[in-house]
User: Fold this.
Amino acid sequence: MAKYYGDLIFEKSVEGRKGYSLPVSPVKDYDMDENLLREEEADLPEVSEFDVVRHYTNVSFKNHGIEKGFYPLGSCTMKYNPKINLEVSKDPRFTSLHPYQPVETVQGILQIYYETQKMLAEISGLDTYSLNPYAGAHGEHVGLMIIRAYHEAKGDFKRTKIIVPDSAHGTNPASAAVAGFDVVEVKSNCEGDHCDGTVDIDHLKEVLDDEVAGIMLTNPNTVGMFEKDILEMAKLVHDAGGLLYYDGANLNPILGVARPGDMGFDITHINLHKTFSTPHGGGGPGSGPVGVTKELKPFLPAPVVRKAGDLYLVDGIGKDSIGQVSHFLGNINVVIKAYSYLRTIGKDNLRDIAKLSTLNANYVKESLKSHYKLPVQEICKHEFVFDGLKDNPHGLRALDVAKRLLDFDMHPPTVYFPLLYREAMMIEPPENESKQTLDAFIDIMKKIAEEAKEDPETLKKAPLTTPVRRLDEAQAARNPRVKFKDLLED
Assistant:
């Protein structure tokens, strides 16, 4: 090997060594179809149980997670999720249910489903929800299908455009394109380097016409600014015959304080796997419930849970429904965790999440703005964005800062997004982080800023303490080499 990757499990392998002892099988040998048999033995390491335990324990140490250190990606991806909610979702009385059981025998889970719909509707100010979509982007696609169905039900087939701000999450234009819409970008308000990501009302007026089906917005936006002109924007879009879609990825800082429905939004998705107690890392599991106004309720995907007297029922596909978008009732396991989370927090304490996430973000922002460029000086919500180092004589990049953070056992923030700034570093300290943790992060960020001036080579070479150093990230994503034999070829 040209490179040392640590003690991999294959390197511990010794021929004939075993980590198990199994009784003789009572099943007699029998002939199998040769098409089902391997041509050669599986290339598996031969190791002891002790070797296996040590291997996976060491691997877990090398992986950064929310239980290991600070994640300044916050409410959008990684905030702490109480273990009690996971335990509730693993209860055999839930996990042993079968989707084809008679409805009378699954009243408990249907009650949870129904009450979760109601809680999300009250939180967001909309009429009702479908919990079927599996993720935020899935919810976006469902919402756009509802927008299309709404216009076509009125005989209006010319509305083929969706307006998306230039500060939007990347899934917004992607979802609109996948749903068959033409994407129209609307500019942000900018004065010189000051771009706060809020929609330029004058430009919005220019792009609105009778071909616009709707607009997709995140409020607060990706710069952490609240769209103060949202009521005017809603009126403009509605007067033009369009609908407003709310991307709920940034719902955390307005919980219990403001509601999308009150702002004029017609459709929203909420990420249960971000805001309400399911970890978001690793690509899943997820759930992106879609809520709508009363007018759009007939278009919701099926099945839908409703209550009739004391009985909870599952309705099939109605004549105006966009159809079924997931298996059965969606990702019930995630719904259970969200239900447990909401019942634990309670209605009266919900706004504490918003207050503390906003407080934490502003505390970090104000503490670091003398060391990092801060394009938007105003009070932010749950997140804010730096535009690289403030004093940067050696031309270091946001990526260098992010890589250096790994040496301090802290996950880096999102870099190079939003696209409004060349050296964007988006920081989201969620509500559950203590002042002590935030102070430690602030101190490390200040140390890195000083290193950028006095010892730039350290940042350029970082990370220095991780199992592997800087990777070709494009190749790592597009052509990952994860097999032991691949490493031997390096």
